[in-house]
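Protocol step 4 of 6: structure prediction from sequence.
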Amino acid sequence: MPDDAPSGVLLVDKDPGFTSHNAVALCRRILNTKKVGHCGTLDPMATGMLIVVVGKATKVQDMLMCEDKVYTATMKLGIETNSQDADGEVVAVKPTDGITEDDVRAAFEAFAQGPFDQLPPMFSAVKINGVPCYKLARKGREVERKPRRVQVLDYQITRIDLTAAEVDFTVHCTKGFYVRTYAHDIGQRLGCGAHLTALRRTRSGAFDIADAVDVPTLKAAGRDELLARLLPLEKVLHDRQQP
């Protein structure tokens, strides 16, 4: 790769419907380079931190994907969907009468006692025999998936509205964690079911959403503007060596 080839990490604040593929394709076009990747997808309805790696920074793609994440989210109690979020089809509706704030808090706390196994949803990018699960799910198929060992490092419930059957929360979690499955499993524990209605990734490792470029700015950017926004690989690696 030529020494003057674009290289670095770009933080993008993803809009709903804007995919990781969209971000990679856009950066390739603006920077006029093919060596562009991303560090983990976000669900279509989700917003927030999307990490794009360019040039030599693609070598640390796996390292950045393995870092812990922070999300803010809203879950709806009493309704389950096949995708575990608002983009899916409703598969069950159950009453939420009798559920108290203490019940909700206890259900969250049950998942904060250490590592646990989480089953990736069928509507996910997890591959079975080389085929993403979501492609099989769209055909109505369900296949066996291997559970992942995950952990809630910290969480905070920021709103409980039992009249609207909604709960807002923040969760700090390890790699491979599905927040919509977390919401689904909490709903199962409560006995009423639940699904995710909003999701935003606010942090990934040392990267904060406040430092990300929004999609309209990204779409309007020229090559020099985008080059100026790339975080140098040396700085990214140096920051991770600090105690």
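Step 5 (inspection) to follow. The chain has eight helices and 15 strands.
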